[in-house]
Design a protein that fits this description.
This protein has helices at 2-26, 50-80, 82-95, 99-131, 139-170, 175-198, 211-224, 260-265, 268-283, 286-320, 331-368, 371-384, 393-399, 405-413; strands at 205-207, 230-234, 245-248, 255-259. Strands 1-2-4-3 form a 4-stranded mixed beta sheet. The protein is built from 14 helices and 4 strands.
């Protein structure tokens, strides 16, 4: 009866919530910018056609609707899977005697089920990216990437989960603290190895082929005092037509990467600004700052997860047939608590990332001394990713991992250079 009331209550809540979100999103104006930006170089009407703005607005609405309507359903799905979870646990115990293989069997079946449940949505966005010209990747290639991700996920996560449950049994009241402590070296090792062991499974990384561009970017690296930095080109066009660049790795494996899509779509001065931005991340140690902040936030997420997870088990465990916090059948509950807390804390993480992006923008414009290139680079990016440049406040709060492009263009256009070359 308890769950019946919950499902009825959730259904009523979700319908009201969906109506409110729909009213909010359908009220958004295509190409909206604040009055202070209207008619300026940050206004999309000055560098985009109305067809481009309308298309970008429609695409953005799809993303916004998906986020707001899917998120509560993601949490509900994990709750619904609890009815299936105990049966899967019992099956694992009949098939295998060793706890490692029981966990491996359980998690493999659970992951396959989750993959199949989300496959229609993933295929929809694959289709959408083709319809809007954001990708030209073949379905076979996309499924291949999904297959690689699935295999890697199982190989890497199952041993870590087994160690996690061992810690939980060994330290039933302090497992959250031990888990957090172990996450510190694991995250460092992962960040060091991912650029050389994982990322090359999806894309090719190689030195820049365009000699002129290579020389121009190397000059920027020399001026920034990082002459020995690894600067690579990535065949990003395998998956997407959108522009991107990034800094990955730590220590001797840290590298600055630009997608071949950016090289194809942008002018050389725009590319120089983009790479100067990434050099800024490198030079300002944003990777290490982000790692430190993530570890601090993770401490509170794991602690909160421990408290909420145990509360849910004490409150509902018997109804679900859960045998205790170490029961692998409670894994959907564990994922639910961590997902819920991560969602709550995500705006704080987004704020920190936006701060770093603004710092990198300022570093880039000081390094290149080219305000026009900075503005045109962001205008090109806006058109390329099919954005209108300005996320509404509510959406920016939850999804804004970067400053609004409109704001970035504004800040670059009026920026007062501090140093002269």
């Amino acid at each position: 009866m308890t769950f019946k009331r919950f499902y009825i209550g959730f259904t009523i809540f979700y319908l009201i919530y969906a109506i409110i979100i729909s009213l909010y999103l359908f009220n958004l104006e295509p190409g909206f910018v604040p009055d202070s930006s209207k008619g300026t170089v940050a206004d999309p009407t000055t560098f985009m056609t109305m067809n481009q703005i309308t298309e970008a607005h429609h695409l953005n609405l799809i993303y916004y609707f998906t986020f707001f309507l899917q998120t509560p359903l993601d949490f509900l799905l994990l709750i619904l899977l609890m009815a299936f979870s105990t049966k899967l646990r019992d099956k694992a115990k009949t098939v295998f005697k060793k706890s490692f293989w029981q966990l491996g069997y359980y998690y493999l079946i659970f992951s396959i089920l989750m993959t199949l449940l989300y496959l229609p949505l993933n295929l929809f966005f694959f289709y959408l990216s083709h319809q809007y010209g954001l990708s030209s990747q073949s379905l076979l290639s996309a499924l291949g990437d999904m297959g690689i991700s699935f295999i890697l996920h199982i190989i890497l996560i199952v041993p870590l989960l087994w160690l996690f449950y061992w810690v939980m049994k060994k330290f039933p009241k302090k497992w959250w603290l031990v888990t957090w402590g172990a996450s510190v070296p694991l995250m460092v090792i992962a960040m060091f190895l991912i650029p050389v062991l994982i990322l090359p499974l999806y894309n090719e990384y190689k030195p820049l082929e365009n000699e002129q561009l290579k020389a121009e970017i190397q000059e920027l690296a020399d001026e920034a005092g990082i002459s020995n930095a690894k600067i690579l080109e990535m065949n990003m066009s395998k998956q997407t037509n959108t522009i991107n660049a990034m800094v990955t790795g730590i220590g001797s494996n840290m590298q600055i990467v630009i997608g071949d899509t950016a090289i194809k779509e942008m002018e050389i001065e725009e590319i120089k600004f983009v790479m100067a931005h990434e050099i800024g991340h490198y030079k300002l140690n944003h990777i290490y700052v982000g790692l430190a902040i993530s570890l601090v936030i993770m401490f509170f997420v794991i602690l909160g997860g421990y408290l909420l997870y145990n509360f849910l088990i004490k409150r509902f465990g018997k109804l679900w047939g859960i045998e205790g916090q170490q029961d692998i059948a409670a894994m959907p509950l564990l994922l639910l608590t961590m997902s819920l807390l991560s969602f709550i804390i995500s705006p704080m993480m987004n704020y920190e990332i936006r701060y770093q992006e603004r710092e990198a923008d300022q570093y880039a414009i000081e390094l290149t001394q080219n305000k026009d290139a900075a503005v045109s680079a962001f205008q090109t990016l806006t058109k390329n990713i099919k954005s209108t440049g300005y996320e509404p406040t509510l959406i920016h709060f939850f999804l804004g991992t970067h400053p609004r492009i409109t704001e970035r263009i504004d800040s670059m256009a009026v920026y007062e250079l501090k140093q002269e070359k």
